[in-house]
Amino acid sequence: MLSQKIENALNKQIKIEAESSQVYLAMACWAENQGFEGVASFMYEHSDEERMHMLKLVKFVNERGGHAKVSALSAPPASFGSFKEMFQTLFNHEVMVSQKINDLVHITLKERDYATHNFLQWYVSEQIEEESLARNILDKINLIGDDKGGLYMFDNDVKILTETNPPV
Ligand code: OFO
After folding, report:
1. CA separation for the pair 108, 116 (Å, rounded)
2. CA of 94, closest atom in ligand 1
3. Least confident of 2-6, 73-77, 132-136, 154-158
4. Distance, CA of 52 to CA of 36 (rounded, Å)
5. Centre of ligand 1 from the C-alpha of residue 97, in Å
6. pTM as predicted
7. Domain span at 73
8. Which of 131, 143, 139, 145 is nearest to 93 (CA)?
9. Domain with 58 in it: what CATH number?
């Protein structure tokens, strides 16, 4: 059984994961409108992944006797400046999510809720991967800058990356 405090904290995280899904969906639309097919499919998949992160939390809350809340979400921006800025935004977003997961883990320890603590370890590992993937992409795009030919090749690389790494 979840305490009210843990239930509320998990519900906050449900909203964060849902908003992450929306942010990446908006990024997918922005990239697709500019003809960057690889980046767009990467973002569509990432958006699906975040929805899966959200659903995993929803099911956990309900299975543990709580009530998962479906909240109103804030709208993400419609455009992201440049690809470099967009991937910087993505990286910053993932760092923020990692911080929220850490805060959540901390609350479970304080509340001595070891079952939820154990459940959240999946998110801790997932965030290590997500941050490292975002950092790798950011390093690449920083090398390319705004060079059109470079961006075209980058788009292809991201496409291959998306095809070889199906959503977790
Ligand atoms: Fe991108 O992270 Fe969810 O958890």
Report:
1. 7
2. 1
3. 154-158
4. 25
5. 6
6. 0.93
7. 4-164
8. 131
9. 1.20.1260.10
